[in-house]
Amino acid sequence: MKSQGEIEAAVCDGISRFQQELIGRGPKDIHSHLIGTLLVVRLQGVLTPSERQLIAPREESSGNGNGNGHENGNGNGNGNGNGHENGNGRSLLKQVRSHMVVTGRSRLETIVEDAVGVKLVSVHHDISTITGEELIVFSLAEAPIYRPKKPKA
Description:
Blueprint: H1 4-23, E1 29-35, E2 38-44, H2 49-55, H3 90-103, H4 105-116, E3 120-127, E4 133-140
Antiparallel strand pairs: 1-2, 2-4, 3-4
């Protein structure tokens, strides 16, 4: 029987490998916390250099339009017409990262279920484009059984 710390470490290792395979690099820091039927995984420093560039504020160019073929700059009725709110790729980044979690759900399910020994019910995900922090919350069918902590001497 695994301890709570061993379960959390196995989840961190698995999710870090998942990120490396999918994105090409892992997080700078990762921690998981098992709380009853919830498993919360916090990844810090997850943005790649190209993602940071994508979400960086851009200076508007002078002249008409914004270089995307729409002279009035509102090609899709969303912000300035380049498909991103506030003229940057924050929304796009969130969509891509969420899509990656959705498409990789079966792999994440295997990682969590193997580490925890309990069936996965649902997965929730968000990423902060400001701090570069990503949260993945797993809802479990039941609280896992693990070895109790050793009493401190």
